[in-house]
Amino acid sequence: MHDIRALRSDPAAFDAALARRGAAPEAARVLAVDTELRAVLTELQEGQARRNEASKAIGAAKAVRDEGAAAVLMAEVAVLKERMPALEERARVGEATVRDALLALPNAPAADVPEGADEHGNVEVHRRGLVAAFDFVALEHDELAGPLGYDPDAAAAISGARFAVLKGPVARLHRALGQYMLDAQIAAGYTEIAPPLLVRGAAMLGTGQLPKFAEDSFHTTDDRWLIPTAEVSLTNLVRERILAETDLPLRFVALTPCFRSEAGSAGRDTRGLIRQHQFDKVEMVSITTPDASEAEHERMTGCAEAVLDALGLPYRRMLLCAGDMGFSARKTYDLEVWLPGQGQYREISSCSNCGDFQARRMDARFRAAGAKGTGFVHTLNGSGLAVGRTLVAVLENYQQADGSVRVPDALRGHMGGVEVLRPA
RNA sequence: GGAGAGGUGGCAGAGUGGUCGAAUGCGGCGGUCUCGAAAACCGUUAAACGGGUAACCGUUUCGAGGGUUCGAAUCCCUCCUUCUCCGCCA
Q1: In Å, how far from its chain's centre is CA A11?
Q2: Which residue, A119, A134, A133, A139, is CA-closest to A342?
Q3: With a cut of 50, which residues of chain A have pLDDT below it?
Q4: Which residue of A54, A61, A381, A389 pairs with A69 in a disulfide if CB–CB is 3.0 to 4.6 A?
């Protein structure tokens, strides 16, 4: 959520910042409501001040048994109070209108975010790792995984499209990846959290999934939401809190299932494990002071890259352009892993600095030692990594001519000594 | 699911209709003392919003939302939530 004061002080700059990501101008409309609201508030508060003053005088008059003076004052307050409900209602509606408008606006892109309307505007920052040359035709992961233990038909029978059943060695490799990556981020300084997977609407509002993107997530019959990412649970750990500056940064990591309705992506990535309604992900979240968030963003992205390095998976880092970023982000790096079967780079991690955008929605603040007042924290989140897509990458990059798949060295400790997955 | 008790400032914890934004303690900050520190002592210390160049003034906030009242932390209703006991349960 934006600071209304930024909009007031320079509406043109406000609209210009949002225009960078394709959002329509809103400043004039919000400003009109805000201006009227403030006039109403002033009038309402003047009435409340007089009422409070008179009420104290009534108490004083009654204390000295001056019923006549009390009656006069009570009559005055009675008149005053007739006007109050209408003003209160106008203030309530005005405040809700401004708030709803601000909640629906995406974050403003950081200054160093490139211009662009969609993924074609993204800028490659660097590439890492060696793209292996295959002396046979590399298969896509779903073809490879079938004989190893991947059963989309069983999943479809149980749950429908976009679900997977993993079996035997593939299930174990999947579990090993999750454990390995979680352990890696714990070693990198993140505190492991086992969070709720069902959350309130308020939590989804805090991180920005609501109110605009309700159709992207699953909603339960008792009015909770299945988390589309552990970012929701982890970031909301600091909601409505005032942290000491000395407690920052906070670094959290969790390995959780994530649930996405994938409304609007019908027909895309229908085969295989790339796009599922349910998938596991290792998620990192950092809570920092405003001064520290940029460096933390680089650090976090580095933590995600370290996993790809350790697994020996080639990848590139992309700086997303203004038009391709998520709603809450002010700057995002995507990591894209090379998939030899598909012959292209695919997103496997996304690391975003949200600035104070989510903190304002959650009311997450910090207090600097000795300083007066509070400030909003900065929040960052990043995948380190998406487990299902990492499994895809390992399968495709470590495949051999006979359809077997080598286990990356880094995973040996989590695979009980298994070095190669062989077709049944 | 049944019964009961709670939710107050950064934290702990008083406060059952008026002068209560709220005692007290802890913590924080400033000072005295000290070569320095500790201890002790003194002072100070909530947030958000509106108005104002500012000093400052005002409003709101005691889990949330309604209500009663001239006036609500305090009384009433609904909801959320925590704890205790019972029941059920992986």
Answers
A1: 27
A2: A139
A3: none
A4: A61
Nearest of A241, A182, A230 to residue A207 by alpha carbon: A230
At residue A367, the pLDDT reads 79
- Helix, strand or coil for residue A413? helix
pTM: 0.92
In A80-220, the DSSP E strands lie at 123-128, 191-192, 198-199
The reply to whether A245 belongs to the active site is no
pLDDT of residue A226: 93
What is the predicted pLDDT for the residue at A369?
Answer: 66
Number of separate helices (H) and strands (E) present in chain A? 12, 15
* CB proximity list for A228: less than 8 A, separation 6 or greater: A209, A216, A217, A258, A259, A260
Complex ipTM value: 0.80
Catalytic residue among A286, A350, A352, A383: A350
Reply yes or no on whether A43 is catalytic.
no
For residue A44, give the nucleotide whose C1' atom is nearest its CA.
B59
- Which two tokens mark A96? 């809700």
Alpha-carbon torsion (A388, A186, A113, A206), positive or negative: positive
How far apart are the C-alpha atoms of A253 and A183, rounded to whole Å?
Answer: 10
What gap in Å lies between CA A110 and CA A354, rounded to an integer? 10
Cα A406 to chain centroid distance, Å, stands at: 34
- CA A370 to C1' B25 (Å) is 21
Other C-beta atoms within 10 Å of A79: how many? 8
User: E strand or H helix at A257, and its extent?
Assistant: strand A250-259
Provide the CA A76 to C1' B68 distance, Å, integer.
Answer: 20
Which one from A251, A330, A361, A389 is the annotated catalytic residue?
A389
- Dihedral sign (CA A277, A282, A288, A291): negative
Rounding to the nearest 10 degrees, give the CA dihedral for residues A123, A125, A129, A131: 30
Please report, rounded to whole angstroms, the spatial distance between the CA atom of protein residue A371 and the C1' atom of nucleotide B44.
Answer: 13
Taking Cα atoms as reference points, which of A228, A287, A300 lies closest to residue A259? Answer: A228
